[in-house]
Amino acid sequence: MDKKIKAMLAILGFAALLAGAYFAYEALTVRTELPINTVQQDLQRAPDITVLDQNGNEVRLSELIGTAVVLNFWTSWCPACVQETPYFDALYREMGGEVRILKVNLTDGQRETQDSALDFVNSRGYAFPVYFDTTGQASGAYGVMAIPVTFFINAEGYVTSGIRGAATADSLRLGVESLR
């Protein structure tokens, strides 16, 4: 093969590599805000899940119909989860009676345990209750592929909006507004 053909193949190969990297980046990039739906018929029913409270009692999402819910999946070893947690605590302290905050810890028993999650929350003085997904059923029902992720569920049991990635005070407030 002559040098021109080799050079052309190298350029094409490099271009294909760049294109592949671009498409992989676009596919893997986490988008911060999920769209907020405003028309009731566009909303999806929230999948029913069962999680454990701090005393080992089962809590079913379907039992909370009639109350707006902020459902967050997290772990204590996740930097973005740690970053957003003070905002959830502030929301709980401000609206704990108005909106139910379900901070669901992905408890695999190895990398994250109930003790490590509770130690994290208690050592920082957070007031919100912690719930545990020890089987992966809850995170599986919501298609959780990366954490943190938050879903806003209205009192009728429909998902109104969500946040992929770390929530901010503003994005939480906007999500709570979507519950009204």
Instruction: Give me the count of strands.
Output: 8
CATH topology of the largest domain: Glutaredoxin
- Highest CATH level, the class of the largest domain: Alpha Beta
SSE run: HEEEEHEHEHEEH
Note the gap between the termini: 69 Å
Shape designation: elongated
Beta-sheet strand percentage? 15-25%
| Spatial order of the strands forming the largest sheet | 1-8-7-4-5-6
Quickly give the CATH architecture of the largest domain.
3-Layer(aba) Sandwich
Unreliable spans are: 28-41
Count of distinct structural domains: 2
Q: How many helical stretches?
A: 5
Radius of gyration using CA atoms only: 21 Å
The residue-averaged pLDDT reads: 87
Described by strand count, sense and barrel closure, the largest sheet is: 6 strands, mixed
Helicity level = 25-40%
Looking at CATH, the homologous superfamily of the largest domain is Glutaredoxin
Secondary structure class reads alpha/beta
